[in-house]
Amino acid sequence: MYLCKSMSKTVRFLNIPIRNITAEELLEQLDSGVLVTPNLDHLVKLQTDKEFYAAYRDAEWVVCDSRILRQCSRLLPESLTEAIPGSSFFTSYYKYHSNDPDCRIFLLGAAPGVGEKAMANINKSVGRKIVVGSYSPPYGFESDAAECQRVVDIVNASGANVVLVGLGAPKQEKWIHRFRHQMPGVKLWMALGATIDFEAGNIKRAPRWVQKLCMEWFYRFLKEPRRMFGRYFVDDPAFFYHFTRQLLGIYRDPFSGRD
C-alpha cells in the first residue's frame, strides 16, 4: 500500500501525496499510526534518501507542515486547505486530550534536561500527568544497537501509548520506521522536530504575523544562523527546481518511476 492509507483526499508534491486535511479534522481522526509533517527540506531529502522515502511511504499520516508548500499548492489542480505546523499542532493535541486518561505521552529527543522541562510545562498546563516520561538519547545513538534497545525498553516501561520523537529529519522518521514494531503498546507516533524545545521554552515560535507571511523559516534562521544556513540557503532551494519540473509534467519519482 502506498502513502496515506485512508480515503482522505491528497495533494501530490513530487513523490509524496500529502493529506488535504484541516487541523480540526486531524485532531478528531488521529488515533493511531505514524504522523510525519513534510516541508521543503523533507521533500528535497525524499529525492535522494531511499530509507527516508521508505519511512514516508509507510507512514499513515502525511500532513503539510509548511505554509510555503500550501502557497505552492495553489499552482496545482487541487490546493491544500491549510498548513498544520507540527509544533503548534502538538500543543492542540495534548490540550484536546487533556481529560482523556487513555492518552499517555512520551517525549523522545532534545538535549539533556529539555524533555523533563517540557514534560513539567505540559503537565502543569493540562493539570494531570499526560506526559509520562522523557528521554534524551546521546548523539549518534541511532547507530548504536545497545542504545537503541535501551530506548525501546525505556519507552515500553513508561506505559506511554503516544510517542513524540524530536530528533530532526530524517533521523526521527527513520528511527520510528525501524523500531516502532518493538513497542506494541504505542499506538501513535509523531515525528515533530524541535517541538520538545518549543514546549520547554528553549526556542520561541515566530510571531503570528511572521508565520502568516510564510517567513517563519527566516525567523528561525535569524535565531540559529550557523545551524540553519545550509538548510535554508543551500539545500531547500532545490525544491523549486523539482516542483517546476512537476508543474511542467516532466518530474519523475527517483524511486518508483511514477509520474
Explain what the structure shows.
With 259 residues, this protein is of the alpha/beta class. The protein folds into two domains: 10-31 and 38-84 and 206-259, no CATH class; 102-197, Rossmann fold, CATH 3.40.50.1110. It is built from 13 helices and eight strands. It has helices at residues 23-29, 40-45, 50-58, 67-73, 86-96, 114-126, 145-158, 171-179, 195-200, 208-212, 216-223, 225-235, 238-248; strands at 10-13, 16-19, 33-36, 61-62, 105-109, 131-135, 162-166, 188-191. The strands form two sheets. Strands 4-3-8-7-5-6 form a six-stranded parallel β-sheet, sandwiched between helices. A two-stranded antiparallel sheet has the order 1-2. Helix 3 crosses helix 8 and helix 11 (216-223) crosses helix 12. The longest helix has 14 residues, at 145-158. The chain starts with 9 loop residues before the first strand and ends in an 11-residue tail after the last helix. The model is unreliable at 1-6 (pLDDT under 50).
Coarse structural class: alpha/beta
Please report which band the strand proportion falls in: under 5%, 5-15%, 15-25%, 25-35%, 35-45% or over 45%. Answer: 5-15%
What summary fits the major beta sheet?
A: 6 strands, parallel
Put simply, the count of helices is 13
* Estimated helix fraction: 40-55%
Average pLDDT? 91
How widely separated are the two ends?
17 Å
Radius of gyration: 18 Å
Strand order of the largest sheet: 4-3-8-7-5-6
- Number of DSSP strands? 8
Shape: globular
Order of helices and strands: EEHEHHEHHEHEHEHEHHHHH
Q: Into how many domains do the coordinates divide?
A: 2
